């Protein structure tokens, strides 16, 4: 990109300052969790941790990684996320591309048909019956198939396809290509930015999802990391003044350093995905310049 | 005539068949479950044979004066959301786009989207810690000579807390979509504008914003679709008796009722009511943008 | 929607109908399945005797083990493991192989409700008291009553010794295996006043015996430590008022009043008003944590573990954690239990929950040959079963001498370095309340916890014998109609209560309006709630 040699203005300075403040505000809580997770448990309990760790210990992490369910849950999440994203991208583009074509007869109607599902859904129980009826219970398919297309993301992808210049299609059709080949040979190669965005969005939603797994899976060996994370983070918290807590010893609360260690471990891999995908966003600008 | 159109589009239809089936099976079939809103649903008898009670469940909440307070609170949170939380990522995206150093831009982006990954429980825990009577913020206020504020048990603070924490959590993540759109802006347009002597503000106003306007419109429409719903898990973790005045929303009320014994029919009726209102709003908004020539959902 | 009611709507409807019909057929097919199953099990449950022959055959050692899937909630602190010693004991004694389905406790309700609502239960499911009442009439749970005489002599004996259990019956029928405590060895856990005795000594103060004295003590604490908030509580004011209002001679919200032998909506009681007035006084003078309305459990623990707060009135077992954290920096620091405090009239009373949790294990009504499962549960109620499901394997994990159980020292040593030795041990053995036991015994808890715990438990026990501490009775069983009414009334009245209680304590609504408040509640449904409770109570008697 040839930005030339412009002078740094007062605006640039202010802008940079705003960003620095932003970085601090966004980073501190994560930093705080990190230092709590490696601090001594009693010091945490007394609320002594503010800006730096106290009496550093890796015990929380040792406890977590010696726990077999967490390791296998990690693996499950990886599998669900990669298979899930593959299905998502495939199905979403199958859906978005036809809807982006102006000559697609019935396009408005189909769009409405789909957008309608954003507002009206039948709730958990009938969906469970459908998944059960298809024999998907206790299989990976129950996790990745019912969420194959997110309407929100589908609409975003459709908007992107619509923004591609019409001339691309016309010239390809002129060369005798059908819609499938146009999509595969012409449109997809130009779609790196939107595909990167969708990959990120879908991957994150799979990574963070726990509810389908909770409902559709009975075998705890199939549980993803988020179910375990929730159990650790929520237990003893306000939301679950739960079952037997009243008549039971008060020690049901999980130590905070373990809580935060699990939170960090659970988000780390997905955090690494972003810088990796970022370069495709930059490539997107190339597309923009090609267009003109 | 139609047949010819269909024939010409046959590959498009082939592509669309699978997604269509998906929506039919996983969304439209379960939708029949909404029938329990008009029944006293019994598990063993099932959807087909449970006794119909008509609009009884709807009447139960529509005639309750407290329900309208809940509607008001729900709407207010959403209005605040549209006014403050919705534009925030757009502004940030535009500011990021103006950053001169690409490396710095990437750094800010990567950091700003971190909070998105924290679960509601963790976020709420932090809010409660920082805003406590002797929490970090109050200590800061005190050191500046101010007076401590009961942030968490003062109803007038609740909406601010809810929206600000929402912005904090989602602003970075929200920029992704706008930045992706901004990368599509033709650099030559900027070049041309600069030749014409347009300053930075003008470039943003006349090039960047118009280019991402379709994305903004679509996002806004989708947001309006959520107008009757609120991320209630956070409210459950943050509200207490003294903030009910502003914090109690439709879903928290339904949740509390659910705790007293699962009441599927009632919850389903409330859900249906919310869906209908949201759908009407979106249909209206979609018409409006169509008339104005903007992007539409269908 | 009227605006868009045009041709396009009908088209959608037409095109979707065609396609969804096929899928709908699918759906009805699976619900058809359910009904087929139902009729199948109806016949089996209506004629238990016809299956007697098969079940007696299966109990012989040669027969293949009956496989039973059990789903229950699973805590992080004490994970429920497969093939634990306790489950192996069950297998050895009843020829039943348990397949564990452990669902995280944080989301157990969502899972359980879905399974019940879709009639897709595992063979055995863990449910709460309220679930039995809510779902019994739907027929998803097996009615156990016809089987009790023949297959469950041990359970019947246990039930006779704790008549409260009869309140779990719906229309006279028992639908679940209730989890009960072996009261001789039960920790008497409850909410009691706990104070930092080292601070009392340091300031030369006598231990308070009345709430008025408590106020003076807290005031002295605040004077000596101006940065402290002497009293801190968790879960908000309503949770605390439940037992505080009772201790002040009243109650909250709907509670059983032994003096009048009836249920009272306590907001109108003097005890409730006094309790609120008392808290208001503490709040004004900053003797009560000003964050009380929004305090998380985490913060509450922080306050008490760091010396920021010096008194709590809550589950006393927490104090062992606080003491451990405090003593790291100050070896003398110590929370100790106060005897129950007297109200303004000099009366002392305090309630505690029944040591029996009274949650239950239900059997799916679709199960074939339920007798085998019933016999298994019945064995778990026997003395032998109690020991296996609470202590593990005799000789290996515990020894018995003249009825006294001693947990093996080697076992205790194995877990003593764990963060929570008691829970780690229980998890390994698969024993106790949080694993799979229907008669619970707290002997292992005392064996692997600090000695104070036993002292406090005994203190509660002696106050219980003196009539000061009362076990809170369970709600009387309601009819379906009453339950529906209560659901509506409780959410309405409850919302009003929640909105106002904090206001009174914080002084945002004058205390002089407490009577008016009680009237507001009565007219918006509290009186109806009271009536429903007392009608149901009268039916019981």
TrEMBL record, chain A:
User: Which segments does the entry list as coiled coil?
Assistant: none
Q: Membrane-crossing residues?
A: 12-34, 78-97, 109-128, 140-161, 182-204, 258-277
**Main subcellular location of this protein, as a coarse class:** membrane
Q: Boundaries of each ABC transmembrane type-1 domain copy?
A: 74-277
Cellular localization per UniProt: Cell membrane
Please provide the Gene Ontology terms (biological process) for this protein. transmembrane transport
Ordered alphabetically, the record's keywords are: Cell membrane, Membrane, Transmembrane, Transmembrane helix, Transport
User: What SUPFAM superfamilies does this protein map onto?
Assistant: MetI-like
Membrane topology type, per the record? Multi-pass membrane protein
Q: Which PANTHER family match?
A: ABC TRANSPORTER PERMEASE PROTEIN MG189-RELATED-RELATED, POLYGALACTURONAN_RHAMNOGALACTURONAN TRANSPORT SYSTEM PERMEASE PROTEIN YTCP
Q: Which family does it belong to?
A: Belongs to the binding-protein-dependent transport system permease family.
Q: What's the protein called, per UniProt?
A: Carbohydrate ABC transporter permease
Q: Which organism is it from?
A: Cohnella fermenti
TrEMBL record, chain C:
Presence of keyword Transport: yes
Entry-linked Pfam families: SBP_bac_1 (PF01547)
Note down the stretches annotated as region Disordered: 39-64
The residues the entry assigns to the signal sequence are 1-36
Q: Under the cellular component aspect of Gene Ontology, which terms does the record hold?
A: cell envelope
Predominant cellular place of this UniProt entry's protein: other
Gene3D superfamilies in UniProt: Periplasmic binding protein-like II
Q: What is the lineage of its organism?
A: Bacteria, Bacillati, Bacillota, Bacilli, Bacillales
> Where in or outside the cell?
Cell envelope
* UniProt protein name: Extracellular solute-binding protein
Q: Work out whether the entry's keyword set contains Lipoprotein.
A: no
The entry assigns this protein to a family as follows: Belongs to the bacterial solute-binding protein 1 family.
Q: Which UniProt keywords apply?
A: Signal, Transport
- Which InterPro entries would you find in this protein's record? Bact_solute-bd_prot1, SBP
């Amino acid at each position: 990109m040839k930005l030339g040699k412009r002078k740094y203005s007062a605006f640039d300075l202010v802008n940079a300052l705003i960003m620095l403040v932003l970085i601090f505000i966004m980073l501190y809580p994560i930093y705080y969790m990190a230092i709590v997770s490696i601090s001594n448990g009693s010091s945490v309990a007394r609320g002594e941790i503010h800006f730096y760790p106290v009496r550093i210990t890796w015990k929380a992490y040792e406890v977590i990684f010696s726990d077999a369910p967490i390791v296998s849950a990690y693996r499950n999440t990886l599998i669900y996320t990669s298979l899930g994203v593959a299905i998502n991208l495939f199905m979403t583009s199958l859906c978005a591309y036809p809807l982006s074509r102006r000559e697609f007869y019935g396009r408005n109607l189909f769009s409405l048909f789909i957008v309608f599902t954003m507002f009206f859904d039948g709730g958990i129980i009938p969906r469970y019956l459908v998944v059960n009826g298809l024999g998907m219970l206790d299989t990976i398919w129950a996790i990745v198939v019912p969420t194959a297309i997110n309407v929100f993301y589908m609409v975003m992808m459709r908007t992107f396809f619509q923004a591609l210049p019409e001339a691309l299609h016309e010239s390809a059709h002129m060369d005798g290509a059908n819609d499938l080949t146009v999509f595969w040979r012409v449109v997809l190669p130009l779609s790196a930015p939107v595909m990167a965005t969708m990959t990120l969005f879908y991957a994150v939603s799979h990574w963070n999802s726990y509810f389908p797994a909770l409902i559709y899976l009975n075998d705890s060996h199939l549980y993803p990391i988020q179910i375990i994370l929730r159990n650790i983070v929520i237990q003893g918290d306000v939301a679950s003044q739960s079952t037997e807590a009243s008549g039971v010893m008060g020690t049901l609360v999980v130590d905070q350093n373990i809580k935060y260690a699990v939170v960090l471990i659970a988000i780390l891999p997905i955090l690494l995905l972003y810088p990796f995908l970022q370069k495709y966003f930059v490539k997107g600008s190339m597309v923009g310049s090609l267009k003109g | 005539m139609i047949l010819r159109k269909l024939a010409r589009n046959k590959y498009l239809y082939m592509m669309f068949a699978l997604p269509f089936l998906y929506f039919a099976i996983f969304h439209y079939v379960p939708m029949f479950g909404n029938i329990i809103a008009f029944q006293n649903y019994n598990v063993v008898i099932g959807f087909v044979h449970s006794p119909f009670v008509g609009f009884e469940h709807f009447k139960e909440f529509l005639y309750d004066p407290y329900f309208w307070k809940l509607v008001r609170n729900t709407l207010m949170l959403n209005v605040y959301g549209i006014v403050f939380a919705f534009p925030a990522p757009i502004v940030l995206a535009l500011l990021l786009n103006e950053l001169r150093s690409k490396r710095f831009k990437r750094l800010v982006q990567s950091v700003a989207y971190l909070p998105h990954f924290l679960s509601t429980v963790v976020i709420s825990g932090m809010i409660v810690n920082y805003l406590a009577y002797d929490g970090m913020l109050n200590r800061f206020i005190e050191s500046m000579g101010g007076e401590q504020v009961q942030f968490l048990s003062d109803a007038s603070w609740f909406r601010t807390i809810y929206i600000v924490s929402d912005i904090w959590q989602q602003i970075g993540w929200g920029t992704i979509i706008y930045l992706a759109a901004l990368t599509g802006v033709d650099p030559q347009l900027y070049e041309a504008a600069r030749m014409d002597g347009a300053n930075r503000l003008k470039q943003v106003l006349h090039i960047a914003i118009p280019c991402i306007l379709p994305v903004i419109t679509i996002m806004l429409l989708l947001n309006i679709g959520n107008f009757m719903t609120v991320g209630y898990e956070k409210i459950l973790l943050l509200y207490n008796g003294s903030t009910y005045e502003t914090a109690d929303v439709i879903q928290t009320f339904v949740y509390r009722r659910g705790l007293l014994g699962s009441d599927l029919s009632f919850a389903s009726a409330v859900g249906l009511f919310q869906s209908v209102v949201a759908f009407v709003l979106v249909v209206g908004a979609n018409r409006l943008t169509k008339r104005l020539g903007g992007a539409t959902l269908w | 929607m009227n605006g868009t009611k045009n041709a396009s709507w009908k088209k959608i409807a037409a095109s979707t109908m065609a396609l969804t019909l096929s899928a709908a057929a699918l759906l009805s097919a699976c619900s058809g399945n359910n009904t087929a199953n139902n009729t199948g099990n109806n016949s089996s449950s209506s004629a238990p005797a016809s299956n007697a022959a098969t079940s007696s055959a299966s109990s012989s050692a040669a027969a293949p083990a009956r496989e039973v899937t059990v789903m229950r909630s699973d805590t992080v602190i004490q994970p429920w493991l497969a093939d634990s010693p306790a489950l192996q004991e069950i297998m050895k004694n009843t020829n039943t192989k348990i397949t564990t389905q452990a669902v995280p406790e944080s989301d157990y309700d969502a899972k359980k409700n879905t399974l019940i609502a879709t009639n897709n239960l595992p063979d055995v499911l863990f449910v709460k008291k309220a679930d039995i009442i809510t779902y019994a009439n739907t027929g998803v749970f097996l009615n156990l009553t016809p089987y009790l005489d023949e297959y469950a002599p041990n359970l019947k004996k246990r039930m006779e010794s704790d008549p409260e259990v009869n309140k779990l019956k719906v229309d006279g029928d028992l639908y679940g295996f209730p989890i009960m405590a072996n009261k001789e060895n039960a920790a008497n856990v409850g909410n009691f006043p706990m104070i930092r005795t080292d601070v009392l000594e340091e300031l030369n103060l006598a231990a308070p015996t009345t709430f008025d004295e408590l106020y003076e003590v807290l005031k002295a604490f605040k004077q000596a430590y101006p940065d402290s908030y002497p009293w801190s509580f968790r879960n908000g004011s309503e949770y605390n008022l439940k037992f505080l209002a009772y201790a002040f001679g009243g109650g909250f919200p709907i509670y059983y009043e032994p003096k009048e032998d009836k249920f009272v909506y306590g907001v109108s009681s003097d005890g409730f008003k006094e309790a609120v007035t008392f808290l208001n006084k503490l709040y004004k003078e900053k003797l009560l944590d000003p964050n009380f309305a929004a305090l998380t459990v985490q913060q509450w623990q922080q306050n008490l573990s760091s010396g920021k707060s010096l008194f709590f009135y809550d589950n006393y077992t927490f104090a062992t954690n606080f003491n451990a954290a405090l003593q790291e920096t100050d070896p003398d620091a110590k929370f100790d239990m106060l005897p129950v405090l007297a109200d303004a009239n000099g009366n002392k009373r305090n309630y505690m929950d029944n040591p029996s949790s009274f949650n239950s294990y239900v059997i799916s009504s679709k199960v074939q040959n339920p007798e085998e499962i019933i016999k298994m549960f019945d064995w778990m109620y026997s003395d032998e079963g109690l020991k296996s499901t609470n202590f593990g394997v005799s000789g290996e994990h515990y020894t018995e001498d003249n009825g006294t159980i001693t947990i093996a020292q080697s076992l205790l040593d194995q877990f003593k370095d764990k963060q929570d030795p008691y829970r780690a041990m229980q998890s390994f053995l698969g024993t106790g309340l949080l694993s799979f036991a229907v008669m619970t015994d707290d002997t292992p808890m005392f064996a692997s916890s600090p000695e104070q715990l036993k002292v406090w438990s005994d203190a509660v026990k002696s106050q219980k014998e003196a009539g000061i501490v009362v076990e809170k009775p369970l709600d009387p069983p309601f009819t379906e109609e009453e339950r529906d009414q209560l659901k509506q009334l409780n959410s309405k009245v409850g919302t009003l209560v929640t909105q106002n209680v904090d206001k009174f304590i914080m002084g945002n609504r004058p205390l002089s309006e407490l009577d008016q408040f009680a009237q507001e509640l009565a007219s918006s449904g509290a009186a109806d709630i009271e009536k429903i409770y007392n009608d149901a109570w009268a039916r019981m008697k």
